[in-house]
Design goal:
Elements lengths: L5 H10 L10 H5 L2 H5 L3 E6 L3 E6 L22 H4 L13 H15 L8
Antiparallel strand pairs: 1-2
């Protein structure tokens, strides 16, 4: 298969009145000022992973704006992370703790740092 530069392909299709746009690479997306201005990409400081770059809220509404928030670390239950949702702080069978321990063990097996819980 013959390979052509993206610019050549886009120009050829546009000249033929075929709607087209190039697909950006990840490095191109990471430096696109429009995506940062629209908060489609955001910086987030995570206590375990450090600074991360994440997708922002894709839907923009004036009265109920979306937002990016903290991600629970292994072992944290939804009730401790989201107390305003009316969930009770109970885990009768200790499921959350067991799952957190199991995840931590798997992370250690692949050499991932153990989070401070």
């Amino acid at each position: 298969m013959r390979r052509e530069p993206v610019d050549h392909i886009v120009k050829t299709l546009l000249d033929a009145e075929i709607p087209v746009a190039p697909v950006k690479t990840i490095p191109q997306v990471a430096v696109d000022p429009h995506l940062w201005e629209r908060e489609m990409l955001v910086r987030w400081k995570d206590p375990v992973a450090g600074e991360m770059y994440l997708p922002g809220a894709t839907i923009k509404m004036s009265k109920t704006p979306g937002r990016v928030g903290p991600v629970p670390t292994p072992g944290h239950t939804p009730t401790s992370s989201y107390p305003g949702f009316g969930l009770r702080r109970r885990d009768p069978g200790g499921i959350a703790a067991r799952e957190g321990d199991r995840l931590s063990s798997r992370m250690a097996a692949v050499g991932a740092p153990r989070p401070n819980l």
